[in-house]
Structure formats: structure tokens, C-alpha cells
Amino acid sequence: MRVRCGQTALGLASVFLGMLLVFQFRAGTGIRQEPLSRDFDELASHIERLETETRTRGQRLEAEIGALRRRPGAVAAGDDYDAELRLLRLASGLYPLSGPGLEIVLEDSGREGRMGFIDPNLLLVHSDHLLFLVNELWVAGAEAIAVNGERVVAQTGFTCAGSLILAGTKRLAPPYIIHALGDPATLRAALTMPGGYIETQIQPYELGITITEKSDLFIPAYRGNFAFEYARLEGEDARVRVRAEEFTEDGRAGD
Amino acid sequence: MIWLLSLFGLAIGVLLGLIIPWQIPLVYGKYSALLILAVADTVLSGLQGLKQEVFSLSRFVGGFFALAGLGLFLVWFGGRLGVDFFPGVAVVFCLRLFGRLPFR
Fold first, then answer.
1. Closest Cβ opposite residue B13 in set A6, A15, A27
2. How far is A105 from chain B (nearest CA, A)?
3. CB contact under 8 A, A24 and B8
4. What DSSP letter does each residue of chain A carry, written as one string?
5. What is the pLDDT of residues A115-150, one digit of tens each?
6. Which of A10, A22, A32 sits opposite B18 (nearest CB)?
7. What is the pLDDT of residues B46-79, one digit of tens each?
8. A97-219 architecture in CATH?
9. What ipTM, to 2 d.p.?
10. How do residues A189-208 score in pLDDT, each as one tens digit?
């Protein structure tokens, strides 16, 4: 009787152990054990604040620009200035553009990090992946770049916020789609060269990356604001003069 | 042959676990890990007791609750104090497990 009782207890304990094991495995612990919600809230409010700040600053600047425009003789109306203005706006990413280029889709690795002792962090797309890819594209001669429809301008920085990637203050979600205008063949060659960034830093971790050459890509205009609080113009003569022939307008730049 | 019973129970448990669509919430992952160690220890102790015919149900059940209770309480309490007792408790549990290994 005593043995029978013991065997039942032992059997039940084993059943319990088996169930617990399955539940634990299913939870897939080890990836993120720490709750991130507090960080998220903090970041969300931070972002919220930044966005409202930028918006109000943008409105103020807009008003300022309007006032300056209306001032008589502020801008001498002339072709030279118009051309310069267009080139500068083009360079600043204020025009939506289209043309041939490359589409790069980047995704987290489909592989489970559990097997083998791989840090699961290595199998995710991080902000520096985007940063380096964008950098490679600029180096290869890309003329305009957008990530998930967010235009990359000189002030755009990629940061990591919890499980999100921010481009400037815009939140990005996977899959990360990079559009780059430029010669598709050149861009592709630069990205896929042996020993290049993709081969050494992306393929070993089996991150999903697909590169397609596109004959007609659309790249939206930069939607944020430019704020210069601390930078001053160095002397009046330091203004960049652009000669008319430097500006090549091939009709692509719409407003 | 008793270990066969244990193995059988384990298999049934795994099957049940696969059928029941539940997973341990991530926040409690640490606790359930310790619980697994405690249950494994209890199962081994039961095997040992049955083999040596010194099995006592009260000690079997009581031992489990004492072990799991103390371990989980320590980890929870450590969390409150800001000290991570998890590694310590895990080491103790593992030592207990390994200590039972050479049973006949």
C-alpha cells in the first residue's frame, strides 16, 4: 500500500515536471526576461515631447520665413536665386524624388537563437545595421535615401529605443525597407562586394536581406524641420554661392 | 523499474503540456525555472526513497513544498531587497540534483 502510494506520488510529480518543462520551453525565455514597459513609457513620453517641440518650432520658423519673404527686397528676385534655392532644397531632401535605384528589405533572422549558444540579440536588426547600410549607399553614390518612407537627410540619426528603431524621431517597424536613388548596378555592387558590410555583418547572422533593382522608385520629401539653435553663420561672405551651370535640372524635381 | 514509471509520467506530462495551450508568463520565467529544478529534485528523491524502501509520502510532499517554497520565497524576497538571489538558489538546487545522481 505504501509503495503503491509512493509510486502514484512519484508518477504525479513526474507528470507535473513534464508539463512545467513544456510550458517553460514554450515561453522561450532567455530572449527578454526583463520587463521593458517602464523604459517604453519613458521613451514614448520623451518622443511625444520632442515631436510637439519640433512641431511648434517648425510653425514658428514657418511664420518667420513668411515674414522674411514678405519683407521688401529681402530676396532679390532672380533666376540665380531661384536655381540656388531649388538646388539647396533638393540637397536638403525637401523635394520628393523618383528615379531608378535599389530597394533593400531587411528583416530579423528567422532562426531561433535557442540552438547553439547564440546571443539572440545578434539575430535582430539593430539601428546600426540601418546606419551602416545607409552609409554604404551614400558612399556608393546614392542621391537620395528613404527608410520605411522616411527621408534620410543630413540630420537623420538612427537610434535604438527598446525594441524599436528610430530614424530621427520617427518610429520604424520591421520589415525595414530602404529605398535609394542612384545607379542600381553600382549600388548593388557596392553592397554585395566580397568582404563588404552585408557579407561580413549581415549574412553570417542570417538576417533576412533582399536587394532588388528598381527602374522607378519614389522617395518622399523630408517631413521634419531643421532647427539651428546654436549654429551661427560665419560672416556674411561665407554664404555658398552656386553658379547656374552647377545646377542640373532634369525635370525630376517636383514640389 | 520504478524509473520507468517516472519516465512514463514525464512523457504523459509532456503530452499534456503540449495539449494545454498555456505558457509561463515571461515575468515568472525565473520562478518556474526554479520550480522545475525543485520538482526534478523531488522526483529524484522519490526514486531514491522507493529504491531504498524508505519512502515516506509526507516527507516526499513536505520536502517538495519546503524546498520550492523556500527557494521561490528567497528569490522573491531578494527582488524586494534589490539583491538577486536567483543564481544562489539555482546553484543550491543544482547541487542537490547532482548530489542525488549516484543513487542505486
1. A15
2. 30
3. no
4. -HHHHHHHHHHHHHHHHHHHHHHHHHHTTTS--S--HHHHHHHHHHHHHHHHHHHHHHHHHHHHHHHHHHSTTSS---HHHHHHHHHHHHHHT-S-EEEEEEEEEEE---S-TTTTT--GGGGS--HHHHHHHHHHHHHTT-SEEEETTEE--TT--EEEETTEEEETTEEE-SSEEEEEES-HHHHHHHHHSTTSHIIIIIGGGT-EEEEEEEEEEEEPPP-S----SS-----GGGSPP--GGG----S----
5. 556 677 778 888 888 999 999 999 999 999 999 999
6. A22
7. 888 888 888 888 888 898 999 999 999 999 898 8
8. 2-Layer Sandwich (3.30)
9. 0.84
10. 998 888 888 888 888 777 88
Segment A103-118 shows an average pLDDT of 73
**pLDDT, position A253:** 38
Residue A103 has pLDDT above 90, yes or no: yes
Cβ within 8 Å, pair B9-A13: yes
| Chain B residues touching A38 at Cβ < 8 A | none
Residues of B within 8 A of A19 (CB-CB) are 13-14, 16-17, 20
Report the chain B residue with the minimal C-alpha distance to residue A23.
B23
Q: Tell me, what's the pLDDT at A194? A: 84
Residue A224 makes CB contacts below 8 A (sequence gap 6+) with A54, A58, A153, A155, A168, A169, A170
Q: What is the pLDDT of residue B22?
A: 79
The alpha-carbon gap from B26 to the nearest alpha carbon of chain A, in Å, equals 6
Percent of chain A with pLDDT over 70: 79
Indicate if the pLDDT at residue A247 is higher than 50. no
The closest of A208, A224, A35 to A123, measured between CA atoms, is A208
- Which of A7, A23, A26 faces B2 most closely, judged by CB atoms? A7
Domain ranges of chain B: 25-100
- Chain A residues with a Cβ under 8 Å from any Cβ in chain B: 2-3, 5-7, 9-24, 26-27, 29, 32-33, 35
Model pLDDT, residue A235: 64
Place of cell 532644397: A89
